[in-house]
Every structure is written in C-alpha cells, then in structure tokens.
Amino acid sequence: xxxxxxxxxxxxxxxxxxxxxxxxxxxGGVPLVERAVRAAAAxxxxxxxxxxxxxxxxxxxxxAAGARVIRRPAELAGDTAxxxxxxxHVLDELAATGETVGTVVFLQATSPFIPxxxxxxxxxxxxxxxxxxxxxxxxxxxxxxxRGESGExxxxxxxxxxxxxxxxxxxxxxxxxxxxxxxxxxxRQAEHRFFGRIGIVEVPEATAIEIxxxxxxxxxxxxxxxxxRPEAIDVAAVVTDFDGVHTDDxxxxxxxxxEQVRVSREDGMGVSRLRRAGIPxxxxxxxxNPVVRARAEKLQVPVxxxxxxxxxxxxxxxxxxxxxxxxxAYLGNDVNDLGAMGIVGWPVAVANAHPAVRAAAxxxxxxxxxxxxxxxxxxxxxxxxxxx
Length: 388
What we know:
Blueprint: E1 5-11, E2 26-27, E3 30-31, H1 32-41, E4 48-53, H2 56-65, E5 68-71, H3 83-96, E6 101-107, H4 116-127, E7 133-140, E8 145-147, E9 153-155, E10 172-183, H5 184-190, E11 198-202, H6 214-227, E12 237-240, E13 252-253, E14 259-260, H7 265-276, E15 281-284, H8 290-299, E16 303-304, H9 310-321, E17 328-332, H10 338-341, E18 346-349, H11 355-360, E19 363-364, H12 373-382
Helix pairs in contact: 1-2, 7-12
C-alpha cells in the first residue's frame, strides 16, 4: 500500500484588492507564488506541491516552477472565500484521483521568505505525533496594548505599572502566516487550520513579513538581498553592463576630455577564473569610450560598444553563440539594463543599483559596482554543480 502523501498547498487566487496581481509580483526578481513553490521544493519532507488558483498567469508560473496546478472554481475564488475552503477542494480533487494525503502544509505566497527548514520541522512534529497542527511564529518580548472605545490605551500582556527587564519577562510568539502544517483527516473534521494539540515552529523574525499592501511589497523587495540565502547561479554565460558594474559609476575627466574610471582588481581575478572555467562572458555598454575597450582587452572579454537596445544585442549574441537566454546571467545597475534583464534567466543587480533594477532582479548582490560585484557574481556562478 502506498504511504499517504505529505503535500504543500499554496492558495493563490488572481484577484487582489490591496496589491493588484499580488501573487505574481516580483520579490528579488521572482514571483511571489514561485517563491512559495521553491520553498516547498527545498523542504525534504514534501512529496507533492499543489497551487490552487483560478488564474491563468499564476497557473503558468506555478507549473514552470514545478507545482501541480488545481483549478479553483469561481465560488471559491472570491474575496470572501477562505483558504480553508481552497485546501478542502484540493484534498477532494486528489481523493478523486486515488491519492491519499496524510499531512498538509499550507503555505501563503504572501510570505516571501518562507524558511524550508521550518517546513521540515513542522512536518516532523506531525509525523512523530507530537502535535496535530503546527504554525510558524517568531519570539517576541513586545509590550502589547489595546485601544478602548474611548481611545484610551490598556495593557494586554503586561502590567503597565511594572516594566521588568527583557530577561525577566516571558516571551510570547507572534504568528508569521508563512506556513501551517496539520493532519489531513483532522483538518477535514475541524475545517480549520488549528485543532487538537497545537505546536509552534519558531522561525527568524526576518522571515515574518507578509505582503498586504504596496509598502510591504517595497520593504520585502529591499530585504530580499539580505534575507535570501545566497544560492549558486547555474548559468552557461555571464553578460554585464560596464559603467556602474565594473566601475563605481564615477569618472575623472582631464582637461583634454579624457576619462579615467576606478575598477576592482578583485573583479579582474574573478573574470580570469571564469575564463579558465570555460564560461563565456560579454560586456555590453551604451558608451563609446576607449576606457571601456581598454578594460575589456585587459580582461580578455569581448565588448559591444554604443548599444542603445541592450536586449536586442544580447539576444543576437546569444543566438550567434548557441546559448539559451534562460541560461544567461545579466548584471546591471541602471534603468537602461532593464530590457536585457527582462529576457534572461538570471537578472542580477549590484547592491547600489537603481530601485527599479533591484526590484527586477532575481538576485541582488551584496557589493556595489566597482567594488567586487562582478567577482561576487562570478563566484556564485562557479559554485554551481556542473557535474550533471
């Protein structure tokens, strides 16, 4: 007899009032629903990932990320429909195909930083019969207050007249909304995510942000480069802008109009390592400037000068060299890089890139242009497993 499945269910409807098209908005260059699918895929305990949606675009993104899509009927996709109703629908659809579910992990795509290790811990609690339902939370020592009808404040979890030190206070746990795990049968009976013996999986506070408005979306975008764990960038080629990427985006101009720029020797070593690994590299620059060619020649990297349409130039170079666009990392810093970033598999931004570039990037590096950003990208490219 086949063992019951442990499934991850990600409800992701198309309608959203606070943030239009929220589930496909980008954080760190990756759609929110895809981030949830990736988090589930990185957890060793998950057998099947299901996205419940009524939306064609969400379905396409989810399937490309590796999830099975179960189409949600219209009556379960409105503003008043609960997540529980979507999960019950998924369980019914799987049961109709003879698939037995033992444990459900409910993930919310509105939480962009779901910790995969926390998912595994939650499932272990269920499988080892410690709890019937589990949720993610972070520890807090905050003093909570409520407002009465008159507007007057009242203390909730403390005595307002007594302010003990942090180490003398009892911690409380704030639900993050990132994930919930529970027994499938118990959930069917309770029709709610909390039932029986309820446990907590403690997760880092940095992962706790939930996106319900544009401001939270902007905060999450800014945090992505810090919270996201560095991952290997598995590509067949690296393409970069020049000014603001290989340089710090400043120039010294002499009295004859000649320019000098500041570059990083560390970047030079990285390019040398990339070249020895046999991975092609290209520099695309809007500028027609001898300093760009001089640096490219020093690095022994081909360069395209005076390019206004970087996306078209990149696509032509990729086709000429037989390299799929999805297998290219493009490193940029300013808005004229957005076109090229939009057609590659790995759009990457330097740390001090324009906000629009950071928002479009799949990866935001920790280093600024001209200060080792190219080397940082290359090291992550070289760290990918190329033995497959």
